[in-house]
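Dissemination and training. As part of the outreach component of the grant, students in the summer workshop were shown how a complex can be specified as a set of sequence lines and then modelled as a single object. The example used during the hands-on session is reproduced here so that future cohorts can follow it. Participants entered these lines:
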Amino acid sequence: MKTGFRLQRNPAKIIRESQIKSYNKDIKYIANPKIQFKYMNFYNHVIVWRGFIHTITFRRMMMRIQLVLLSLFLIIQIHANDLKAQRLTLNANQMSLENVLKEVTKQTAYDFLYNPDLLIKHAVPVTLSQINKPLEDVLEYIFKGQPRLTYTVDQKTVIIRPKKETATPISTTNTATLQAVIRGRVINEQSEPMSDVTVQFQGTTRGTKTNEQGLYDIEIIGNNTTLVFSYVGYTTEEVSIAGKQEINVVLKIQDANLDEVVVVGYGTQKRSDVTGAIVSIRPQELENMPYSNVVQSLQGKLPGVNITNTGTSAEGDTRLRVRAQNSINADAGPLIVLDGIQFEGFLSEISPNDIESIEVLKDASSAAIYGARGANGVMLITTKRGLAGKTRIALESMFSTSNIINRPDMMDATQFYNFKQQRMGFVSSFEEQQYQNGVNTDWLDYATQTGFKQDHNLSISGGAEKTKFFIAGNASRTDGVARNDVYNRYALRINMDTEITPWLTFGTASTIGYYDRPGEGANISNASRMNPLTAPYDEDGNLNFQPNPDDLNIVSPLEGLNIQKEDVARRILTNNYIQVDFPFVEGLSFKTLTGYNYRTRLIEQYSSASNTLRGSQVGGSATVNNQNREEWSIENILSYTRDFGPHNIFLTGVYTARAYETKFHDNSGVGFPGDHMSYYQFRLATTLTPSDQYTKESSLSQMFRANYSYDSRYLFTFTVRRDGFSAFGANNKYSVFPSAAVGWNMERESFMQSLTWLNRSKLRLSLGESGNQAISAYSSMPTMANQYYLDNAGDPLIGFYPNQLADPTLSWETTRQLNIGWDFALLKNRLSGTVDAYFSNTRSLLLNKQIPQINGVTTIRQNIGQTKSNGIEVALSSINVQSDNFSWQTNANFTYAKNEIVDVGLFDEAGNPLDNVASSWFIGKPIGVIYTYGFDGIWQETDDILNSHMPTARPGDVRVKDYNNDGAITVEDRHIIGQNFPKYTIGFTNTFAYRDLSLSFFIYASQGATRYTEHMNTYFNGSTTIRQREWWTPENKINTYPANRDDSNPYGLNYFGKTNDASFIRLSDISLAYKLPLSITNKIHVDRLELFTNVKNVLTLTRYIGMDPEYESDFGIPQIRTFLFGARIGF
Amino acid sequence: MKTYAYKLFILLTLTVLLVGCSDSFLDEVAKDETYADNLYTDLNGFKLAKNALLHFPRQERMEPIQSAELGVIWKIGTDIGWANTELSWTRGLNQYTTADLNGMMQFLNGDTEGRPGIFLILYRCISSANLLIARSDNPEVDWQGGNEVENEANKNEMVAHARLIRAWAYRHLVMTFGPVPINTTEITGENYRDDWQRDPVESIQALIEEDLLFAEQWLPDNSNDVARLSKAIAQHYLAELYLWQNKPEQAEAKARAVVDNPNYRLITERYGVRRNEPGCAFMDQFYDGNILPSQGNTEALWVFPNSDVDNILGAYGNTMRRTWVSAYNNRNIEYSPEYGGRGIGRAAITAWVFSIYESSDDRFSEHAIRKSYVDRDGNTIMCHMSASQMTTNNHIWASTRKWDWTYDNPSRYGESYSYADQTYLRLADTYLLLAEALHMQGNNSESNGAAFFINQVRQRANATPVSTGDVTLDYILDERARELVTEEPRRETLMRTGKLIERTRLYNPIASGQRDGGTGIQSFHTLLPFPQRIIDANTGHPLKQNPGYN
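and obtained this result:
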């Protein structure tokens, strides 16, 4: 800190400040709404005098100051030379000063900064003739003739200002009040003025806000010493006012740092005041690694948030989990809250560019405010809001191409022919003929293509003093790698906030979306099963819709290309609020937030009798799906926040109600007189099969939260929520979820001052309960299923039978979690991070308990059993190199999670919990284990088979591990051979920046999961199981896979050791971005111009031999590699 | 502005209060679902429940698991059937290999994709029947009769259907697995059990008898309505049960009741849709269009209706032809209606069955057995029928034509399933039960004893009559094979008569172990293994696996 003072006292610095001051005098009268203003490029940096400097800000400042100092010396040296070196030729006859200056700009690298009104008022036309003169001389000449104007030069900018004697400077008339008024300007890192920034004296509520130009003035009253500049989503700056008249501030967008403001649900808090385990990210940080679906881009970026890319469709398929899975059966995905309102449905329908921030509430204390929905974590998505001031336009466009990598290894025609001969002793006459004719079809080739995507985003934001807006349009079109797999998204977002009265604010965050999924994609799953001896097209080039005469029901994978289909979803999502800031009670406000979400999807499809198999068999087949979802919610939030000296209290009460209703009315018809009316001829169908579906869920909740902090040093949070949910049993609809947390900001303690290596340290401890209500409507009701019969005339007889047992006491799962966290910054903030450890117990699990089928069903959903889990999450951020031109930053995170089953509602007579083998639930073992026979190699000719535990085996058979060593294979030899979920995951991002060029790469690793792969399926049905495998033969005595016989794998093993180990390390993303320097962007009058390129899925290291270690199915679209190019421009 | 804001504030406050005051806000009404409570309120609701019950027996001829009729488990691995295509689970019954025939078998347990196995289908059927029976006791039910007597009759006819079908399910269970748990009560989310015990065979037989007697009392003598079962079915199964219990007099009485029922007669003359085409009376009763009683079929006791109208509710994919006809397409032979449509030869009739017909027997004529094909090039390919040709994937193995059926549309000749009506239980079967009952009492007479009734069946098929002296239990079992092959759940018949091991070893060179050199069928194989999944899930009480199985 002392060093900081010295540095700021540096003579060079003083020179700098004097420049600023002179500049700011100009600003004073630029408070004109019509102002046009160009900024000096050096103004990117905070130049302030500070008495008290926040540690982290101070650290950043230090770096900046160093930069500034360095550049200043250069500037000063270049300065004089440069003005002389730049030469120009000018001829003018009574030309306006403005035009003369424009001419100078054209010929030199210099810009002019001026208020146009000033020129209109004071400029005198110029006449001159200067040939190849240094700029210095030309300028001097020009301004000699200007009685009221003078100029100064700063770097490459010439600032024009009035001459002292002609201006009406406040500084002269108001000398007495100089100390009493402070003026200044607040800008963001893009040098754009920021309006509505709160400027307050520290420790008071007295203050003002900046205007559209980012300007403010404030009268000093009393003995206030420090000004605080704050704006939601930006760093808060505290500046000492001692001896200053002008304070200019650059507010930075929050990064994953301790000063940021985080959305905590029903409000925001400063990161330093947060007591729970909350991770947050701003998608802008990932903007050079874009994905269609925002969840995809979060993989490996947030510790404790586990994202699996489960497929490669045009929309992006993901599975999202927060922390260890506690739930055995119930849906384990987190609650998604979009702009304060619960969001249901497709995350791919949210435009990633609209998102301002994403917060994930991980621990029970922070998630408990969402009560019965919080146990799996809560993801809060906040969209961008407008900023008052200059209207900003940003355009971003991206283009990408994708190609399949890691194709599954399929048999070609010869391999298939030989394999089938060997396995089954025959090939069909058709196969023989095709083989002789040399047919060899790689169906995946026909079913896939190079994917292409374009994505365009245009946003306009800005606003005046009382109304701010953010309007964004998104258009994206994705052609997936599966042919005809298309997803088009068109969305318009309007976010607006307006102050109706000083105490009443209205705001909206609304989207209208049109989501188009036209066409039926090629069926990759079928393509991965097609006999290579079949041909996709006939001699005339028409689709063979019965490609295999041996089995006329085999559908061509390309049939979808002939299906006529429209599939459009339309969504209106509007979240609106009214906020009342009670004028009579300071700090008290009431907010009503309403959400309304209406989504309709209409899917129309026709398979014609002439060119599809389905249609040809039934005389044309049409289906229509009408899906309507409507959801409303209302949240009433009463909050009170106030400082009493060092005490701060923040109270929040919430009353909320929500209802969600879906209505589906579908129809399908077959047997039409002709094809030309496609799906508009249901009335002509021979058979119509309509179906309908209705669900409604409703919930009612109350929540109260109290936050108290003393000196921002000791932090306390207490919350309680009461939730009611319709799907629970009639007598069990309500429950209460309490939680409490404490935090200690150690850096505010005096002893921390002596620990120079430790810049920040905060300890957090929380304990709370949250619920998982994730059961669907009617789960507690014993519904009946249909089963039909026919009468003599062949007309349907409707029948019902019981297919669900229901427990009327059904309720939510409850998770109790203890979280211990440490946030820290070391080594002058070069290394910062967070460590969280947690311990959870979940009881009253919603289990689909396997019960004997003697009960008429296989399962019943009940609240039984317990699990416990624990985990460690570490996030580290390190600035490895930071110099003028080059920086290297590393972000790494590590997630370890482990769960185990405590009981599943079964106990022996002594009360000890029992396994439920039928469900593969084992006490003390993780959820989701694979319980089966163990692979123990292959029986070889040299083995003593007769005297082994498998005396009837033959060489080449799978050797099953005799796990209990009883000399025989029995069901007792089944054991746990692996688990479905990884034990730990690691995300690792490195970013290198050299001047305006930045390069980053992201590595993701996942360890410990075991996954099935079709490659290990020894079964062969004669046609569709066509993965190429290496089989045991007497000549090739491998120990990994059995002989090519139907009976070589008698116990039907699917897991063969290492080849099923789905651990992997993946170089997921490399991106390169170039930001055009301001010297260029200024010339072309844009604020920002960036080009970026990105490669996804560069390299994967794994022993898993299936399609992809992350994929749920081995029959989906193979993994793809994407090359992306994009540009963004801002005005 | 202030008034406006004030009004807004009032409005918001009101909204909050209104929402908060709504007591029923969290009540659930599933508008699109049916529950027992709102179904079993009147006769109509009970009929809807009965319709679903009627479908369970049809599932025996569907293929929930591994593309063969579920009932194939009672047919292969016996004297009459073998697995032409050896999948892991059919191999278990085909060859009686330890590794494949065990409690893990999918067709007992259900498969990994949630498709039900035999156990779930049968117990689901029992649960559905129990629910109907239990709900019939509710005095509030409107039985829609004109008076008490009609009400009682309406109620009892519904219950009789439920009890008949429940008896059908327990019959399969006890004959397949031996002792199984009995449940006769309505199962709910509150009283379900996981501590089931296996009840003795005698108790299950008693339950079946009680159910069938009730059904006999309350079902009609005769029904031309496929959705209304007749008492003849109950009597047929009673006859079989009494034979199993070694009560031949009682068996005789029940079988006679069916045989003497004037509404049922053996088909002895040509009739129906193909009566003018070459053929025989025996086969006429297997052609779609001839199956229903209303279409002139007097021999059928129980028929399964079907419909080839696409997508119609109530139609079901019958897999009998697919299971039993060979995959002849592999031999350059085109799918055609003449060849019955597409077969995939999961199962096949043993060479022994083909060997026990006389040449005059209609049941072995070209109308009843596929003996040759003509391929695309015009070559005639003779089918295989000899024991040495019982090799896996024999695509030209001779097959029964009882299940031949395919669509008229040539592009659908190769479709998987059959949508033809089919007979499930025939009077000829009852005749042979009656013969067996008489034989057990020592009456093999050609005029009124076992030989008489056997000859009714034989003469219809133009087979030489059997003489009194030739009637033995084995002869009756042979005759059952000749008449009922692929229809009869053969394993159950042989289990009931104690002949499974002996006859399978004699007549099935694969199941005996002869072909592949294994040990083949053992005495413990009389019962199939108890499903492991049930053992695993029955955590409250350990269930024992059937002896001999791991």
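The radius of gyration of chain B is 26 Å. Students were then asked to discuss how this feature might be tested experimentally.
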